[in-house]
Design a protein that fits this description.
CATH architecture of the largest domain in chain A: 3-Layer(aba) Sandwich
CATH superfamily of the largest domain in chain A: P-loop containing nucleotide triphosphate hydrolases
Distance between the termini of chain A: 42 Å
Number of strands of chain A: 9
CATH superfamily of the largest domain in chain B: MetI-like
CATH class of the largest domain in chain A: Alpha Beta
Radius of gyration of chain A: 18 Å
Shape of chain B: flat
Oligomer: heterodimer
Helix content of chain A: 25-40%
Distance between the termini of chain B: 28 Å
Strand content of chain A: 25-35%
Radius of gyration of chain B: 24 Å
Order of helices and strands of chain A: EEEHEEHHHEHEHEEHH
Number of domains of chain A: 2
CATH architecture of the largest domain in chain B: Orthogonal Bundle
Helix content of chain B: over 70%
Order of helices and strands of chain B: HHHHHHHHHHHH
Strand order of the largest sheet of chain A: 5-6-7-3-8-9
Largest interface: A-B, 20 and 18 residues
Chain lengths: 250, 263
């Protein structure tokens, strides 16, 4: 397909240590279209994070390939906000540009604009400790957006927050993603979050990580995540994915 | 212009009062200690020849100042502490950085560091004098032996225990190793670096005095040694008294910088 922004082909990853080897990912094929939001759902420890790590260039694949359609830039948002407590909100937002040596006037202005736009203008010179959990995540997102990536990789972006904040933030995140026109590949273990945010959900198996099922999420009146939870098809998808995951407490 | 409620002001006052009380109690303990010491010596309950007394310490200080070489002794000791502090910190910092940078070297060096750190350095005293000579240099060398290894170990352990997420984040921006070192490892360990300095300073003090006890012609350690040889207990206790003052000044100086880092 032409409009694929990212294609993962026959990707495998094996970890080696003294006890032996672990196959984390085996023969994985995923295509992601431009401006699409794809959620990866799978049992914990199934190698989802490894996959994002490989895509972000933090780890090396054992086999297979990752193909980008043109020169595409990846932005990685970690599970924890990891804001540096010794830097102000503005300095934290600029750290990516600083590392990439792209601290041009233009880019700095863009970051200022992002902070203003998303309600952080009064906090630019404050330190992260004075922000709420939700605001910290927003700064983390802006820090990722600052380097102008085409594809955002989100690793359970809100797992450290309480339930209410997460609900509110999923709307927030969705709005920012759409306004900034980004393609997103996100990991979550929250089925409801996946259905309410994503265009497509890929359910993964236990280790080694393979595709179990793919769902194109078609909801009536698809809109913002919180509204999407009211769609009549919601529970249908929920049920399907729940069965796919086959959660057993051992 | 009060922006707080009455209740909150009362609360603040209470905290302030408690803090004051702690200071006052601390102060009175030292005053009472000196008072009892003085009174007991005046009543001849304790022998001033063996235990000295606050007034004798005071007299000794004025005497020493008048004979003009007292300040010189303090200066010599302070200079030795300062030089060995700076040297051991720089050496420790450099080596800790190298170990952080290169895991292989760190693994190789690990047992040697542990052995060297746990070795009682006084045992090296005679050797140091033979190798380096009976001068100020061997005192500084002794002090370096005592403080450098612990500095390396402390700094290295705090460098490698830097939050993995902090490092991963920079790596996701394709940061170089130097950028990670400079922007995360050093910055996130500022507090650890200062507390290492605090330990360092007291180690250097111990090292310098130990060195001065072994070889020296001046310095507070020399005064203690000389005083004990001629049985001038006043001189010994006065020197110890001055040492206590020097070490607390150094301690509070670093404490001051430590408090300045707040984020």
């Amino acid at each position: 397909m032409q409009d694929n922004i990212l294609s993962i082909r026959n990707l495998s990853k094996t970890y080696h240590d003294i006890q032996g080897e672990t196959v984390a990912i085996r023969d994985l094929n995923i295509d992601i279209k431009d401006k699409e939001i794809v959620a990866l759902v799978g049992p914990s420890g199934c190698g989802k994070s490894t996959l994002l790590g490989i895509l972000a260039g933090l780890e090396k694949e054992s086999n297979g390939s990752i193909l980008f359609n043109g020169r595409k830039k990846i932005g990685f948002m970690l599970q924890s906000d990891s804001l540096y407590p010794w830097l102000t909100v503005l300095e934290n937002s600029l750290i990516g540009l600083e590392i990439e040596k792209k601290l041009t006037k233009e880019n700095i202005k863009k970051v200022h604009k992002l902070l203003d736009k998303y309600g952080l203008n009064d906090f630019k010179d404050k330190y992260p400790r004075s922000l709420s959990g939700g605001m910290k995540q927003r700064v983390a997102l802006i820090r990722t957006l600052a380097t102008n990536p085409d594809i955002l990789l989100l690793d359970e972006p809100y797992s450290a927050l309480d339930y209410q904040t997460r609900l509110a933030l999923s709307d927030d995140l969705y709005r920012i993603i759409k306004e900034e026109n980004k393609t997103v590949l996100m990991i979550t273990h929250d089925i409801a979050e996946a259905i309410s945010m994503a265009d497509r959900i890929i359910v993964l198996t236990k280790r080694p990580c393979q595709i179990k099922n793919i769902y194109n999420v078609n909801l009536t009146n698809k809109g913002y995540p919180i509204e999407n939870r009211k769609a009549p098809e919601f529970s249908y998808y929920y049920d399907k994915i729940w069965r796919d995951l086959d959660v057993n407490i051992q | 212009m009060s922006i707080y409620s009455k209740e909150h002001e009362l609360f603040l006052k209470k905290i302030k009062r408690k803090k004051c009380l702690v200071y006052l109690t601390q102060l009175s303990i030292i005053i009472i200690f000196f008072l009892i010491w003085e009174i007991l010596s005046r009543l001849h309950i304790i022998n001033t020849f063996l235990f000295s007394s606050p007034s004798n310490i005071f007299k000794t200080i004025t005497n020493l100042i008048n004979t003009n070489n007292f300040l010189n002794h303090i200066l010599v000791t302070s200079k030795e502490i300062l030089i060995s502090f700076i040297l051991s910190f720089i050496i420790g910092f450099l080596i800790a950085t190298i170990l952080w940078w290169n895991n292989f070297i760190a693994k190789v060096v690990d047992p040697y560091l542990t052995i060297l750190n746990s070795l009682p350095k006084v045992a090296l005293g005679p050797l140091i004098i033979i190798w380096v000579g009976a001068s100020s240099n061997s005192i500084i060398f002794m002090s370096l032996m005592i403080s450098t290894f612990i500095t390396i170990i402390n700094l290295y352990t705090s460098f490698i225990s830097t939050d993995k997420n902090y490092i991963m984040l920079l790596k996701s921006f394709k940061a170089t190793k130097y950028q990670i070192y400079q922007k995360v490892v050093l910055k996130s360990n500022l507090k650890n670096i200062l507390s290492t300095m605090k330990i360092n300073v007291s180690m250097n003090l111990i090292g310098v005095i130990m060195g001065e006890l072994l070889v020296s012609k001046s310095g507070l350690g020399y005064l203690i040694m000389y005083g004990s040889q001629v049985f001038n207990i006043n001189l010994v206790i006065t020197s110890i008294f001055i040492l206590a003052i020097i070490s607390s000044i150094l301690y509070y100086l670093i404490n001051y910088f430590e408090k300045k880092i707040d984020y």
